[in-house]
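Q: Hi! First time doing this. I have a protein sequence and I read that you can turn it into a structure. Is that right? Here it is:
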Amino acid sequence: MNQIRFTYKTGKYFGRLFAERPQGLVVEVLAVEKHPIQGDLHNPNQVDVPLFHVRTALHPHEKVTVAPGVVYAYEGEIPSYAESLRQAFDKEVERLNGQNPQADAFVQKCLENYKELESIYAKRWG
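A: Yes, that's right. Below is the predicted 3D structure, encoded as structure tokens:
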């Protein structure tokens, strides 16, 4: 299992198995499949929470420990990190824009987070 897909918190990534430890599998991030969800995971779709998290995608070559149950072999071609991050970011913004942001405070807050993330990601996009 050289190439893998894995879930980390609310994001999905492509990567490779780096090491096996008693705590779980250490995986290396190579690309982003699905951007992490914004907000408070304990209070989904709520804006009036103590901290509305700005969740960034994991960095390229970052290593994280995950449970074996969230790791799957992957046979396809893995895109470049920058390209995959841009696509995952754009897909999530498009999905949120399709949910009538003017009528939904949660969607508005998520889109505000994505505006902030866009400036952070500009360096990663190159």
